[in-house]
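4.2 Preliminary Data

To establish feasibility before requesting continued support, the project team ran the inverse folding procedure on a target of 696 residues. The structure was first converted into the token representation described in Section 3, and no sequence information of any kind was made available to the design step. The complete token record follows.
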């Protein structure tokens, strides 16, 4: 999935004043004259005189006035300087020898990059984290100008093996520059991915391989982080071996300084104009009050909620359908795209954090970077209040990573607590097991940790420095812009579960969306959002058949697909077979969009509607079972009719089971071996005929 570049165009309206041609009528009144006297002026003289006067007046009135030069307000964009685009010059100026680039979509790779850059100090070196989008990556060949220099790349993979948004330009640069000589570059890569996805860690693997192809020297083996397992543990294990290798390579020794290193300093504002204080804006101050397109991840649009209804008729879950109004926003989307929303944390959790730490959450503060040369001046928009930071900017619900525990350990007054926190941050088997059981398996967030460790009461400013940013959440759009050009539909299930400690944990975004009533105390509820482009697209030729497989809320993008195929038919276009395989637990409880789907089947838009009600009979029936039942029809659609296959939903089980079903169909009806069948499906993927929009 890629974000379409937004271009801000400024239309200058030229105004011209059209002067109407004016004919001045001159009326001449003549007094009676003595007949004998010769008239002073003849009629010809009077005519010529009047003509000259008229022309002079016309010239004065109609001569072109100098057009006023339109006054353009100077944009506040700072001039790009060498300091801002050249990481080499910045490193030289600040005495840094290690640079950690990150390709990050949800903030984790950026977090790891910051940790590695801070680590450098403990090994007698100086590091900086850097967003490749902000720098000229063509300078990598110059890194050898800096003694003992090293480039580390923390690269996440997004979607179907894609680079993250901020690493897209770097990826393109690597692909396009075959003649680049990086023989002076020393590097290593840590990749972040998820094994449940087809293209596991594709971006990290590509960067590692490509840098070597361009002549760079790998100082340490590629690290592979698996978010389906324990990404934190993978990172720590790699990091523990990485730094000794760096020290050996450069002939340096660790300084042994294991103390906490602060990156930001606190400034409290006792007397400040509240108009200059951030209240939840993602980018520009007051951007939620004065909305200006284009809208993107740094400038979301506040979309009013026009519909918020429960979809399921029974059961203990809450499945919902929301509609967001984008009228007047100039936002465009296509079926298959994603809508990103910026949620806020539950105010009850925020208040509890304030109470347990004994602080006034409404104090206005700034956290200022101690490195004045850093592009990142603050960890989140400042100045703001602790309440705003904990509500809008910081992730307080996910279990904290080990580096947070390590940094906070110093504030525990109980030596046993301090010891356990440091142990959990170590790479020892005992420490890893303790972190896994006490933090991850028990789903303890920072509030739960503070509640269960009464001796731990850190300064709130240090806690705010360490907590990761609250990230946007992505949802597959459940509508077609052909039918709903001014509306975006969301289909989601509210996340709520009990932890091993007996606490009730609630999903941040889904519970926030659930409470977005159409009108709240007379005011329209709004959702900060933007569109993220996707590769999940209907075939270019409408005559191609489509097979859509989406159980549960995986139905979302297919509602858009069905709407679009219906619209095409209304336009008189020839549309190929439109086949849906949908699954839910019980027909009478959670059959989502039942009326819409049955209507689409009735009017011929859906040529096949196959539904697996998994728990309405003794043996569970899932979508993959229905695929196998209809194998002859499926094989004909794929092998003969050039059908496109789309899968949306759970990556860990459903997507794998469905793919296995296709392998088995290809084996049985295509007369293939398992290897040939696997290759056959992979070729469909390569051709863009087997697309997945899955999550784990």
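Position-by-position output of the design step:
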């Amino acid at each position: 999935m890629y974000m379409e570049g937004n271009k801000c165009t400024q239309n200058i309206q030229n105004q011209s004043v059209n002067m109407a041609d004016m004919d001045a009528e001159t009326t001449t009144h003549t007094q009676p004259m003595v007949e004998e006297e010769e008239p002073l002026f003849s009629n010809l003289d009077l005519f010529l005189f009047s003509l000259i006067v008229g022309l002079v007046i016309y010239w004065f009135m109609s001569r072109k006035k100098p057009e006023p030069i339109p006054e353009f307000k100077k944009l506040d964009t700072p001039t790009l300087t060498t300091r801002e685009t050249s990481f080499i010059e910045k490193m030289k100026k600040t005495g840094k020898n290690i640079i950690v680039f990150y390709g990050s979509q949800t903030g984790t790779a950026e977090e790891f990059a910051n940790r590695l850059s801070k680590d450098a100090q403990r090994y007698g070196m100086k590091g900086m984290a850097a967003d490749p989008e902000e720098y000229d990556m063509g300078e990598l060949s110059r890194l050898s100008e800096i003694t003992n220099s090293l480039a580390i790349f923390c690269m996440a993979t997004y979607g179907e093996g894609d680079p993250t948004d901020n690493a897209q330009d770097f990826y393109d640069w690597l692909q396009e520059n075959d003649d680049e000589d990086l023989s002076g570059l020393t590097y290593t890569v840590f990749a972040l991915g998820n094994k449940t996805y087809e293209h596991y860690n594709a971006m990290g693997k590509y960067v590692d391989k490509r840098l070597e192809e361009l002549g760079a020297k790998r100082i340490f083996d590629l690290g592979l982080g698996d978010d389906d397992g324990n990404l934190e543990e993978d990172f720590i294990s790699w990091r523990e071996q990485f730094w000794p290798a760096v020290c050996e390579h450069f002939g340096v020794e660790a300084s042994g300084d294991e103390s906490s290193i602060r990156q930001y300093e606190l400034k409290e504002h006792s007397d400040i104009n509240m108009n200059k204080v951030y209240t939840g804006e993602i980018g520009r101050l007051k951007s939620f009050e004065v909305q200006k397109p284009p809208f993107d991840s740094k400038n979301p649009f506040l979309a009013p909620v026009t519909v918020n209804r429960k979809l399921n008729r029974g059961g203990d879950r809450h499945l919902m359908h929301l509609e967001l109004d984008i009228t007047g926003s100039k936002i465009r989307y296509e079926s298959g795209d994603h809508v990103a929303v910026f949620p806020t944390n539950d105010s009850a959790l925020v208040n509890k954090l304030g109470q347990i730490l004994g602080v006034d959450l409404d104090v206005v503060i700034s956290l200022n970077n101690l490195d004045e040369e850093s592009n990142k001046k603050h960890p989140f928009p400042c100045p703001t209040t602790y309440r705003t930071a904990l509500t809008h900017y910081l992730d307080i619900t996910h279990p904290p990573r080990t580096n947070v525990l390590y940094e906070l350990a110093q504030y525990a007054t109980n030596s046993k607590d301090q010891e356990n926190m440091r142990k959990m941050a170590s790479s020892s088997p005992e420490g890893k097991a303790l972190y896994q059981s006490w933090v991850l398996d028990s789903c303890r967030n920072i509030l739960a940790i503070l509640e269960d460790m009464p001796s731990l009461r850190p300064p709130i400013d240090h806690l705010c420095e360490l907590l990761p940013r609250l990230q946007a959440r992505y949802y597959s759009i459940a509508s077609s812009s052909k039918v709903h050009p001014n509306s975006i539909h969301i289909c989601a299930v509210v996340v709520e579960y009990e932890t091993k400690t007996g606490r009730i944990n609630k999903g941040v975004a889904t519970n926030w969306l659930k409470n977005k009533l159409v009108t709240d105390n007379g005011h329209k509820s709004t959702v900060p959002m933007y569109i993220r482009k996707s590769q999940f697209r209907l075939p270019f030729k409408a005559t191609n058949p489509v097979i859509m497989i989406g159980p549960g809320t995986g139905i979302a993008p297919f509602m858009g697909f069905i709407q679009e195929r219906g619209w095409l038919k209304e336009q008189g276009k020839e549309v190929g077979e439109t086949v849906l395989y949908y699954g839910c637990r019980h027909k009478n409880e959670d059959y989502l969009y039942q009326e819409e789907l049955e209507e689409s089947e009735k009017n011929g838009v859906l040529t096949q509607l196959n539904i697996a009600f998994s728990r309405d009979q003794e043996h569970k029936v899932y979508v993959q079972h229905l695929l196998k039942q209809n194998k002859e029809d499926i094989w004909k659609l794929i092998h003969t009719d050039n059908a496109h296959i789309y899968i949306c939903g759970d990556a860990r089980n459903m997507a794998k089971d469905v793919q296995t079903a296709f392998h088995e169909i290809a084996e049985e009806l295509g007369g293939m071996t398992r290897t040939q069948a696997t290759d056959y499906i992979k070729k469909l993927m390569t051709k863009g005929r087997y697309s997945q929009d899955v999550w784990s």
